[in-house]
Design a protein that fits this description.
Structural class: alpha/beta
Strand order of the largest sheet: 3-2-1-4-5-7-6
Order of helices and strands: HHHEHEHEEHEHHEHHHHE
Helix content: 40-55%
Bound molecules: S-adenosylmethionine
Largest sheet: 7 strands, mixed
Number of helices: 12
Radius of gyration: 21 Å
Distance between the termini: 57 Å
CATH class: Alpha Beta
CATH topology: Rossmann fold
Strand content: 15-25%
Shape: globular
Number of strands: 7
């Protein structure tokens, strides 16, 4: 049904409607990113356990997990720059005796079977060979061990052309953007899906409500890049341009409901 101009200016926008203003102007009490630690705490990891941070970047989370739970950690990532930074961060934290860092992809990890009590996998699975990576995670876990997955999926609000542009720019495997594919693959390699918790735009709302202006910076970047596309592409190359633009729209797409970050808890059956 099309809105008439009388409705638009007379009814909807013509008068202040306190009830409606309150309906969308009130915080929905969004959860923050720290919720991942609460989920992980439920895995009951202790000082004798070793956890895996799969796709660790600079090991910031591996260090935090060891500090919080007193466990040991193995941190893996395939990017040499990340490994260099991870070694530095672990050394600076004085945790070189508790955290081992390996340059490796999740598809083939230099880790003994059944040696890992729990896995932390935050924002990584968009990039990987999913069947091989989840099978490896299943292999290295102890029976009864759990895997926390934080992963962003596409929703039906994502248009095909914008999806293709985003995934190409961000080195993502298109099939991995589907929750159905993810769940099917997890079950296929032997995991039980214990929990599925769509975060949607909660973390982003929380950051804004707490006064973080990054989303506005991202919008400004998108606008500037859009208006200078030709020049920027000529100077820095198409791939670089697309990656920077896609990085800036990532959070905006979450706010628009085109991307839905989701937390899963997977369990390896046994014990
Ligand atoms: C968006 S970052 C997330 C990093 C970190 N887990 C975090 O939450 O901040 C994605 C990470 O996945 C890593 N990555 C890419 N392909 C991978 C693979 N096949 N196996 C493991 N990690 C991978 C990247 O190097 C990068 O560190």
């Amino acid at each position: 049904m099309t809105t008439t101009v009388e409705e638009l200016y007379g009814d909807f926008w013509g008068r202040v409607d306190p009830e409606f203003q309150e309906a969308f102007g009130t915080s929905l009490k969004p959860r923050g990113a720290d919720m991942l630690y609460d989920v992980f705490a439920g895995f009951g990891v202790g000082t004798d356990d070793t956890v895996l941070d799969a796709g660790c970047r600079d090991a910031i989370y591996a260090v935090e997990l060891v500090r919080r739970f007193g466990c040991r950690a193995v941190a893996i990532d395939p990017v040499p720059l990340h490994i260099e930074r991870a070694h530095r961060r672990v050394a600076e934290a004085g945790l070189a005796d508790r955290i081992t860092v390996h340059q490796a992809g999740m598809e083939d990890m230099p880790i003994e079977s059944g040696s890992i009590a729990a896995i932390w996998c935050r924002d990584v699975l968009n990039h990987v060979n999913l069947p091989a990576s989840l099978a490896e995670c299943h292999r290295v876990l102890v029976p009864g061990g759990r895997m926390l997955v934080y992963q962003t999926f596409a929703t039906d609000k994502m248009e095909l052309r914008e999806a293709a542009r985003l995934y190409t720019a961000l080195a993502m495997v298109p099939e991995n953007m589907s929750p159905t594919t993810f769940e099917g693959t997890a079950r296929q390699v032997g995991f039980v899906i214990e929990q599925r918790d769509p975060i949607d735009s909660e973390w982003r709302e929380r950051w804004i409500e707490d006064g973080d202006h990054q989303m506005l910076e991202d919008l400004l970047q998108v606008a500037r890049m859009r208006r200078r596309e030709e020049d920027l592409v000529q100077r820095f190359g198409r791939e670089r341009y697309e990656a920077e633009l896609a990085g800036a729209v990532w959070g905006i797409y979450q706010m628009l409901g085109k991307l839905c970050p989701t937390v899963y808890v997977l369990r390896k059956p046994g014990e």
